[in-house]
Amino acid sequence: MNTSSASFISLLLVSSLLLTNAQTTPPLIRGLSFDFHRTNCPSLETTIRDYLREIFSSDFGMAPGLLRVHFHDCFVQGCDGSVLLAGSASGPAEQEAPPNLTLRPRAFVIINELRNRIHRACGAIVSCSDIAALCARDAVFLSGGPDYRVPLGRRDGVTLATVNATLDNLPFFGSSARELAAFFLNKGLDLNDLVALSGGHTFGRSNCASFVGRLYPTQDPTLDPIFAETLRRVCPSNTSSGVTPLDVRTPNIFDNQFYVALVNRQGLLNSDQDLFTDPTIRPIVTRFANNQTLFFERYVFSIIKMGMLNVLTGTQGQIRTDCSRRNTVTTHLTTGVDEQGESAAF
Ligand code: HEM
Ligand SMILES: *[C@@H]1O[C@H](CO)[C@@H](O)[C@H](O)[C@H]1NC(C)=O
Ligand SMILES: *[C@@H]1O[C@H](CO)[C@@H](O)[C@H](O)[C@H]1NC(C)=O
Ligand SMILES: *[C@@H]1O[C@H](CO)[C@@H](O)[C@H](O)[C@H]1NC(C)=O
Ligand SMILES: *[C@@H]1O[C@H](CO)[C@@H](O)[C@H](O)[C@H]1NC(C)=O
């Protein structure tokens, strides 16, 4: 490469860093932008952060609960809020969801309450899927993780997520790292994304059902025996209903200790531990275990990428006036909104 094109490229890099406030960001999907609601709903982000700070101070579990909602939303039919619809397989009030899919019911209530406050202040111009993405960001930041800017402008879908679509599109806790890698690749997410996003398991909890297969009938030899012993107390049989933290070291903090646990063979889910067992993926796990700054950088990049999976933009979909229901009548609320949002600058 000659020097002038090299300096042109470094200039591009510098300006994109300046534009994004020094945050390393994947290319944004057309129709999304960081400033989408800056002029039409300036109170949006402070409303969410202030409300969640208050919620988490008395109910910490809502932080991992909200991050997981955003993950399920994006993997099933794209980040279109379908997981928030009553009647979707792991949606609010859904009794039929497999136990490993059960999202915390209060997380749905919180998102709808925020939608109510935001729509009262700004009108029905912010989608439920954008609110879920912002909640996921604040769940991480308010738990000790990185802060970052979220591309906005998503629209809400009108299609329920069926049980089959949900099971087909969510990764399975029993999977090997190789299977997970193929699964993520199919969604446009690479190995770095897989490992960084699995860091979502640095807080929150799991039910026995998601890992008893590693204890009974025979114990998984990759499991640290002392750790396995404590797990057997939480889940004395293969039908126990106990719960235990996903990150045994710092269960309520968003940090890199989840990776330190994997290095010490104290990962709870088979799908997590196998990232360390797999020789091609192990170096990424080790790097994150040794360098939290690196993990935070990579996590921010990957969660933004995940947050853009198959999004609806422009005049697609609608802005739901209740996150748990599709709008029944197509009113002016579902159109004519886009002019107010600033369009992406690329
Ligand atoms: C890599 C594939 C993944 C698999 C196989 C997986 C599977 C699981 C399972 C089985 C649980 C425990 C559910 C239970 O038994 O109650 C769980 C919890 C959780 N997952 Fe994942 N997950 C994956 C990726 C992700 C990603 C990408 C995120 C977000 C970035 C995420 C965020 C969470 C959170 C925060 C919890 C705790 C939820 C709570 O405490 O309410 N997971 N996951
Ligand atoms: C769901 O998947 C199962 C098993 O693959 C299949 O038998 C069933 O017909 C599917 N149901 C629908 C509604 O697609
Ligand atoms: C949830 O559990 C069911 C039954 O054990 C299993 O078929 C399914 O693949 C699991 N799904 C996920 C996402 O872990
Ligand atoms: C639990 O273990 C028993 C005895 O080994 C077995 O018959 C049963 O299918 C297992 N149940 C589950 C949910 O894995
Ligand atoms: C950790 O990662 C950061 C961010 O990539 C990097 O700047 C720093 O040099 C790394 N630290 C060490 C000790 O490797």
Automatic annotation (TrEMBL):
Residue ranges of domain Plant heme peroxidase family profile in the record: 31-327
Lineage top rank: taxon: Eukaryota
Biological process annotations from GO: hydrogen peroxide catabolic process; response to oxidative stress
Compartments, record wording: Secreted
Site (Transition state stabilizer): R68
Residues that coordinate or bind Ca(2+) 1: D73, V76, G78, D80, S82, E94
Keyword annotations: Calcium, Disulfide bond, Glycoprotein, Heme, Hydrogen peroxide, Iron, Metal-binding, Oxidoreductase, Peroxidase, Secreted, Signal
CDD domains for this protein: secretory_peroxidase
Pfam families listed in its UniProt record: peroxidase (PF00141)
Function: Removal of H(2)O(2), oxidation of toxic reductants, biosynthesis and degradation of lignin, suberization, auxin catabolism, response to environmental stresses such as wounding, pathogen attack and oxidative stress.
Protein name in UniProt: Peroxidase
Record organism: Aquilegia coerulea
Lineage: Eukaryota, Viridiplantae, Streptophyta, Embryophyta, Tracheophyta
